[in-house]
Amino acid sequence: MFENFTAETVETGEASVFVRHGGSGPPVLLLHGHPRTSATWHRVAPRLAGRGFTVVCADLRGYGRSRGPAPTADHGAHSKRAMAGDMAAVMRALGHERFALAGHDRGSYVALRLALDRPGLVSRVALLDCLPISEHLSRITPEFATLYWHWFFFARPDVPERVINADPDAWYASRGDPEGMGEENYAEWREAMRNPRVVRAMLEDYRAGLTVDRRHEEADRAAGRRLEPPALVLWSVRDDLEELYGDPLRIWRDWAADVTGHGIDSGHHMAEEAPRELAAALGDFFGA
């Protein structure tokens, strides 16, 4: 994976962030979702580098090989604002003062927070397979609760740690396979899933989502804050976003003045399942 990319750990003060970076040209930061690591981009990053971008793929705080502070009672240590601060520090350490940004799934919430909090850093933002957390929570239906039950299970104290760590291979068995993910990506992911510290950090990400992150988004809406950089919204047509909400762009237009997007013929992990189509869409958007 990631031939001709450099792998290193960047110290941000609060966290140690594992990154892969390569290519040359305008910088692009790619953020993975749950339960993946930065390796999920191994089929997309080289394509973007081939189109003339410097590509940075980072493990989010606590995921994969990144490490952060101990969890806090208010879950703020794993808030999207804290994670966004990590990514701003990483890009600055790598010499990038302004950059394009893409996030998938949980990584999209970090991308949204970074673009809202520090719009001067972000030239363009792509948000993949997501709506703002507060938008999901304001639209709870039996269908949403059935499909997204894990949000609420993960938010429980202590219980999900005991369940997952009792047999992580069984818990995550349906989340990926070597053929679909690529053997090296799969091996890296499974190693991370067997680390109780990683499991705890991933659960704290969800706990923050239903508490401090939701409050931050609600404060944004109350203050009339919207995304300033142009936004691209992409979703997997074989996932559940359209099933639950219809056209996601209709909701995102309340959050961004300049938003475009479309569906991609893929299941949820589009970077692994439809890398050619995703890289083309991101490359066209970031190069516009």
From TrEMBL:
Top-rank taxon, per record: Bacteria
GO terms assigned for molecular function: hydrolase activity
InterPro entries, alphabetized: AB_hydrolase_1 (IPR000073), AB_hydrolase_fold (IPR029058), Carboxylesterase_BioH (IPR050228), Epox_hydrolase-like (IPR000639)
Residue ranges crossing the lipid bilayer per the database entry: none
Key words, A-Z: Hydrolase
Protein's UniProt keywords contain Hydrolase: yes
Name under which the protein is recorded: Alpha/beta hydrolase
